[in-house]
Structures are given as structure tokens and as C-alpha cells.
Amino acid sequence: MRASRISVVFLSLALSALSAPSPRRRAVDNGVEVLLFDSPAFQNPADASSTLASIEVYTYQTPIDTSELGDVLHDILSPLSIFGVDASGALETALDRVRLVAAVGKGGQAVTIDVNGCSQPATLGATSTSPDNGLAVQTVSLGQCGDAATFTGALTGASAQASMTVFPSADSGFGVISDIDDTVKVSHVLNKLKLAKATLFDEPEAVAGMPELYSSLASSLSSPNFIYITGSPYQLYPFLRDFIDTSYSETPGPIFAKNLTLSDLGDLSSFLFDSNSTFDFKTSQIARVHEMYPNKKFLTVGDSTEKDPETYGEAFRTFGADFIQCIWIRAVDKADNSDKRFAAAFKDVPKNKYRVYSDDDIVNLLPTIDVAGGAC
Fold first, then answer.
1. Do 110 and 186 reside in the same domain of the chain?
2. Domain region containing 267
3. 78 CB-near residues (< 8 Å, 6+ apart)
4. If exposure means fewest CB atoms within 10 Å of the residue's CB, which of 28, 54, 284, 362 is most exposed?
5. Cα separation of 271 and 259, whole Å?
6. Which PANTHER family match (predicted)?
7. Does the global pTM surpass 0.85?
8. pLDDT band at 6 (very low <50, low <70, confident <90, very high)
9. What CATH number has the domain bearing residue 328?
């Protein structure tokens, strides 16, 4: 039982790293902390003068005693010694990064966020109880907002402020939907030991050439909104958000991450690595994007390690070429890059609407493609 327990916890910790405490979190008087997620905003279809935002928050408590988590971490660090990781020196760093995996979601919490530049605060009803304890994703009105590219939100009445960025965008023009792991960030999804090392210890690394490519898209697509959709759990949000902030500072955007709560721990390995779970999550989030921006055209960017080809192919079949303008898939070494796979994934998708690209293409080809003009 010990070996089985360690293997499951290993999988959970490998994908549940968190950065050190962030200004996006704060504690309130009752001991409940609030994590704010950056959010997309869009014109209210019923009132063109007002703005709606799809806002996500998480309310939780962190246990004071993390000794059991430390013991588990100590046990799982030894396999990483083959990569030069010193378990004795790395334990504190790893413990800090994964601390939120032990957090207990606290439902029933009302959250109010003041959004600078908008006429009314974002008022969310009580956060969820069972089964998504502490999580809330709600569409709320911000009233009338100015014409700034972004707005900053902060918890009302908080002595130690938690902040978020609201990204407004018109329901026209172009947007970019992007995966994160092994699309814009080196994660080694196909090698679990390397994945654990990259998540627990390494400074996050951008896929070579992708920051420059996204910067070029920001220009050629006339300031598209970027939305990052990842199969990683939302406990990783601060870690991933800081990575996007740092490595993709010219193309920031909200991150939609998969729901993982303590109630999932008993079935954690299948939750994290079941490709159908990730497929279902990502297709639901693309539908969420379509609900906000039904008249916008999107370039979707992903990779071949998991289910991005199947996800984007399904989105094209569901919403059509008016919404999914173009699909780019990075061919990752040792993934299934077979013609058979892509033929199935892109069934009924015209061949001029998708492209499987190599790492060399990131620098030499993709920046030259006139996506705005209809090329792919």
C-alpha cells in the first residue's frame, strides 16, 4: 500500500506545483484565503453600454501542519537524483510549491472585487460547496468601463490586497487560444520524471521561439486577445500565471485551468492523465470562449503530446471556420505524430485550415503566414 500511495501522490505533486505566496492571494479575518484568476471581459449582448466578465475565484484554508506532505515529498524526491536534484536541499522549495495541494476549499464565501475603470464592482455569489468546494466561475456585470486595454481588480476591503487583471475584448477581429504545456512552456509531459523536475524545481522555460512568435501575432492580428487553456490543475495557476507574465509579457491573457479538488485525490492519477478528461475540459472551455465571442475568429495553438489535435478538430466541427480560423499543432518528439492520428483528429477539417509544425517552423515559417488574410 505504501508504494501505491507514493506513486499516486507522486503524480499529484508532479503536476500540482505552486509558486510562493502571491499578491493574487490574501487571507481574511476568518482564516479563509482567496485566489483571484485573471478574467476575460466582453460586451453585454443585452446592453452594448455595459461590460460583462467571466470571473473565477477560489476560497480555501491551508493546513498549518504540513509535516505529512513533507514526509511524502522526501520519499518521492529520490528518483530525481538521476537528474542531479539534491533531495536534502530541494525539499523546502518543493514543499512551498505544492503547499496548496493540501488546501481545503471553503464554499459559501461571497466575494466582491473592485475593478478600476469600471462603474460597478464584480459581485460573486457564494462560492461552490460540494463537489467543487471553494471554486466559483460566474459571469457578472462590471457596469460601464473605460477603453483601457486591461483593468485591475482587487478584493473589496482587503487589508492585504489580492489582485487580478481583467482583459476586455470586442466580439470581432482575431483572438488566439493557446495550450501551455509543451506548446509555449517546456514541460516534458511524456516523461514523468522530467515533468516532476520541471514542475517542482526548475525555473520555467519557454519553448524556443514561441515568445517572439506570439509577439509577431500580436502585431499581425492587430492586438488579438490571448486565452490560455491548459489541462494542468488550477492549483498550478499562480505558477503558470507568473510564467506567462515573465516569458510572454507582450501577450498576456486569462488562463483556464482544469478543476482539481481534494475530492479528486482518491482517483488522482486517472484525473491527471486521462486524455478524455482533458479533452472534455478543453472543449468545454472553447465553448465558453465562443459564448463570450461568437463573432470573433480564433487561431488555436497546441501540441501533439495529449489531445490538442482532437480538441481543436472537434471545435472546428462544432463552431465552423468562421470561429476556428486556423489550427497549429507542434509536433513533439516521441508523441504520436502519425498521419493516421491527424487524419482522424482533423476529420472534416479542410487541409488548408490546420498545420502540424516543427520546432524549426516556429522561427522560419510560422511568422510569415498571413493568418489575418486567411492563410494557415
1. no
2. 174-368
3. 87
4. 284
5. 10
6. FILAMENT ORGANIZATION PROTEIN APP1-LIKE, PUTATIVE (AFU_ORTHOLOGUE AFUA_1G06650)-RELATED, PHOSPHATIDATE PHOSPHATASE APP1
7. yes
8. very low
9. 3.40.50.1000
